[in-house]
Structure formats: structure tokens, C-alpha cells
Design goal:
The chain is built from twelve helices and 21 strands. The protein has helices at about 20-25, 35-45, 65-75, 85-90, 110-115, 125-140, 180-185, 210-225, 255-265, 275-280, 315, 405-410, and strands at about 5, 10-15, 15, 30-35, 55-60, 75-80, 100, 120-125, 145-150, 175, 190-195, 235, 270-275, 285-295, 300-305, 325, 335-340, 350-355, 365, 390, 395-400. The strands form three sheets. Strands 4, 14, 15, 16, 17, 18, 19, 20 and 21 form a nine-stranded mixed β-sheet that branches. Strands 5-6-7-8-9-11-12-13 form an eight-stranded parallel β-barrel, surrounded by six helices. The structure holds ligand LLP.
């Protein structure tokens, strides 16, 4: 459920009229709804009420500071994968003791920064990474709480580019190597190997892969305890999917929580979850304007001012996003591809959509883009990143302004020898 609606030819986010806003700030822009973000977080937190569960919002899904701060105020922790995300999470008010650090490529500098900050847990993905972390912890006089990310070799049935828990994926420690890795971790100075971590993929629309993975984690937990390890934390990753199409029915947070409880409720462990999409996806829309239409030889195109640079998901994953015209025109519905101005054939927001021909300036809304929308953006074709708006009731704030060209080009320099000296 979300808080966006089209009413009498105008688009509203909660009580804010975005059609009017579009005239003042220009398009394209992202708009996020605080009420939706909060609702998603609360539903999840409520579903896990009886457990010792820390919900670490996966910052990569939508890393806008205001989005993180909205969730932090509800009690969320953060799942981070870089020093930049550590910086963001702390700046947005997430307490360090609710931050977990994931990712296969943590560097020495990143480990030191996270140790200094006092984060809850490092999710470590290899022995080499463990050794580096042990060294950093010794050098800085800290002890690192570690969960070893294991790869349960489960097919989550998701798009191949977002599957993470299969043997051929780069993530985690091979299942059969896991007990040996825990033995190794136990010998390393300044490492407290206290947790098991998994993350089997993203946009998972069926509970069965979670069920298989949780059972494997439970088995590993028993094996490790029998070998004398003191396992006090289980990080179950993120991955629960959201509906991208109307009428798509998915497991609810309650169904998911029931599965977690069956698997782990009796264990004396702190649990972590790392949801990203589930919290942010439906809480964001992209508002864009029609530049012009173009009837090609084989297809009709609506060219809009948002592009793959704002929303990469359609071209990267063949992802479907619902698109609505705010003020539909009269006339016969035609079939259109909705494309951006970027010079790539893959620059599309949606294909084979049906609607009467829109006019230049008409507003189009792209739904379910609060996760992996703005955060995957780029400035390809020297395009300026779309601003981001956060709505709360009848208030709105510009939580990321549109940069100007001087800011964009300001990071670059022309060496003296290339400057025209005449
Ligand atoms: N934890 C870890 C270690 C992850 O790698 C991810 C996502 C998450 C948590 C959050 O997963 P979620 O609950 O959002 O599914 N760009 C892709 C999704 C990539 C997901 C990467 N990892 C997309 O737009 O579909």
C-alpha cells in the first residue's frame, strides 16, 4: 500500500499536490512518502515484535539521508556496504550499534572506519577478509563482532543479476567450508565470530527459498554449537519482494515472520534483517513530463524527460514499472514504448504500454521506484540527477536538490597543457 493517488487530473503524494510542485521545481523528480516508509517499517517491526530483532534497513536501496533518517526515527538500524554508506547512516542518526557492514570487498580503510564507529557487526565473506579485519581490529584496539556470510546454494528464483545465494555467485563462504571458516575465525585475534549471515537474493516472491535457506542455517547453527562455537547472532539478509504489477500477490511480512519464528524463535540469538526494497520501493514515484511523441516505422514512442539515468531497472533487469498519465487524453489507445532522451536503445522506462496519444508537457508517473531508483542513477549523457522530494502530510521538503552544470563539471579539470593559451 502507498500514499500516492491521481485525482481529477492531478497527482498527490499524501496531501501534497505534485502537479503544482512539478511547475515550480521542474521534472523529472523523485517523490517519497514518509507515511508509506513508516508504514512499511512498522508492519515489519510489528510482525517481529516477540523476537530480539534488529531491522537494518539496507541503505543501498534508497540512500537519501532523509529516507534513512525517517526510518532511523522509527527505530531502524542500517545495513551498509561501503564507507560512504557508513557515513550516511551515521549522519542520518542511525546508532552505530544497529549497523551491520555487508559486502565482499571491504577495504582496510573501510574496516578501520567502521571499527572506530563501533558498529554492531561485520558480515564477513572470506577468510582473507577475516584476516584483514583481525589485523585492523588489533591495530585500532577493537574487537570486531563477526557474522560469517555463508552461501547456502539456494536458487531464490529471481532475476539472474540479483541472485546472490547460489554456488556460482560471488557472495558468501561456500557451504561446505563454513565450519572450517568458523574454526579459523576462532583462532584470530580481536575477532568475535558470533554470527551466521545469509542473503540469498532480491525481489524474492515465494517463501520456499527462504524456508530452505533457514533450515540450512539452523543445521549449521547446531553443528557450530556442537563444535563449541558461541553463536549469538543470526542475520537473515533482505530479499523479500514487492508487487510491481497490480494484482501480483506476494507473501506478507507476517507470513515471512512466521517462517522466521518457526526456524529460530527458540534460539538465544539476536536476529538481524536487512530489508531494502520491501521498505522503500512502494514509497517512491518518479514524476516525468512528455517531451514529444514520435511514430516510428515499427513502434510508437513517447519521449519523456526521465531516462535510464534516473531509472536503470527496466533496461538492467527487464523490470516492469507501472506508468500512469496524470491527465489522460481522449482518443483511441495506441501502443507505445516510453523512452528517455539518452542515446542508447536500452533507454526505456516501459515498453508496449497502451494509452491515447499524450501531449508535450503531460505528466507521467512511474510507480514503485523508491528502491533502486535514484540510488542506481548516473549522470550519463551529462544529465543532472533528478531532485528528490520527501512528503509528510501536507508538507514537502526537497531532500536532494538538482545540481547545476558547474557542480557536475567542477569535479573535472582540463590540464594546463590542453588549455588554449592564445
Ligand atoms: N543485504 C544484502 C547483503 C544485499 O546485498 C541486499 C541487496 C540487501 C540486503 C537488500 O535486499 P532487498 O531487501 O532490497 O531485496 N538493484 C537491484 C537489487 C540489488 C540488490 C542487491 N543487494 C534491483 O533494482 O532490483
Amino acid at each position: 500500500m502507498h500514499h500516492f493517488r491521481i485525482e481529477n487530473g492531478q497527482i498527490f503524494a499524501e496531501n501534497v499536490d505534485l502537479s503544482q510542485l512539478a511547475e515550480t521545481i521542474g521534472t523529472p523528480f523523485y517523490c517519497y512518502s514518509s507515511a508509506t516508509l513508516e508504514r512499511h517499517y512498522k508492519l515489519l517491526a510489528e510482525a517481529f515484535r516477540e523476537l530480539d530483532m534488529t531491522i537494518c534497513y539496507s541503505v543501498k536501496a534508497n540512500s537519501n539521508l532523509a529516507v534513512i533518517a525517517t526510518l532511523a526515527r522509527q527505530g531502524a538500524g542500517a545495513d551498509i556496504v561501503s564507507q560512504g554508506e557508513l557515513h550516511r547512516a551515521l549522519a542520518a542518526g542511525v546508532p552505530a550499534e544497529k549497523i551491520v557492514f555487508s559486502g565482499v570487498g571491504k577495504t582496510d580503510a573501510e574496516m578501520r572506519a567502521a571499527l572506530q564507529a563501533g558498529i554492531a557487526q561485520f558480515n564477513v565473506e572470506s577468510i582473507a577478509e577475516l584476516e584483514m579485519l583481525s589485523q585492523c581490529a588489533q591495530d585500532t584496539g577493537h574487537t570486531a563482532n563477526v557474522a560469517l556470510r555463508v552461501n547456502p546454494d539456494v536458487d531464490a528464483g529471481t532475476h539472474e543479476k540479483i541472485s546472490t545465494g547460489k554456488a556460482e555467485n560471488k557472495f558468501g563462504i561456500a557451504w561446505e567450508d563454513a565450519p572450517g571458516a568458523f574454526d579459523k575465525a576462532r583462532q584470530l585475534p580481536n575477532i568475535n565470530a558470533c554470527g551466521i549471515d545469509i542473503h540469498i537474493g532480491s525481489q524474492i516472491t515465494d517463501l520456499a527459498p527462504f524456508d530452505i535457506a533457514f533450515k540450512k542455517v539452523r543445521e549449521l547453527y547446531e553443528t557450530l554449537c556442537a563444535a563449541g562455537h558461541n553463536i549469538t547472532a543470526l542475520d537473515l539478509g533482505g530479499g523479500l519482494g514487492v508487487p510491481y504489477e497490480p494484482d501480483q500477490s506476494l507473501p506478507s511480512p507476517q507470513d515471512y515472520a512466521a517462517l522466521v519464528k518457526t526456524a529460530f524463535a527458540d534460539l538465544p540469538c539476536r536476529l538481524f534483517l536487512e530489508p531494502g526494497r520491501l521498505i522503500a520501493a512502494n514509497a517512491g514515484i518518479l514524476v516525468s513530463s512528455v517531451i514529444r511523441t514520435k511514430k516510428g516505422q515499427a513502434k510508437n514512442f513517447i519521449i519523456v524527460d526521465a531516462a535510464m539515468t534516473e531509472l536503470m531497472r527496466p533496461t538492467l533487469y527487464d523490470a516492469h514499472h507501472e506508468i500512469a498519465v496524470v491527465t489522460p487524453r481522449a482518443g483511441e489507445a495506441l501502443q507505445w514504448d516510453i523512452v528517455g532522451p539518452v542515446c542508447e536503445t536500452g533507454d526505456f522506462i516501459g515498453t508496449n504500454r497502451h494509452m491515447p496519444e499524450p501531449e508535450a508537457g503531460d505528466l507521467l508517473v512511474v510507480y514503485t521506484v523508491g528502491a533502486y531508483g535514484a540510488s542506481l542513477g548516473s549522470s550519463y549523457n551529462t544529465r543532472l540527477a533528478a531532485p528528490e522530494i520527501l512528503v509528510q502530510g501536507d508538507q514537502y521538503d526537497i531532500v536532494r536538490r538538482r545540481p547545476d552544470y558547474d557542480e557536475l563539471l567542477g569535479l573535472e579539470a582540463i590540464p594546463d597543457h590542453l588549455k588554449n593559451t592564445e
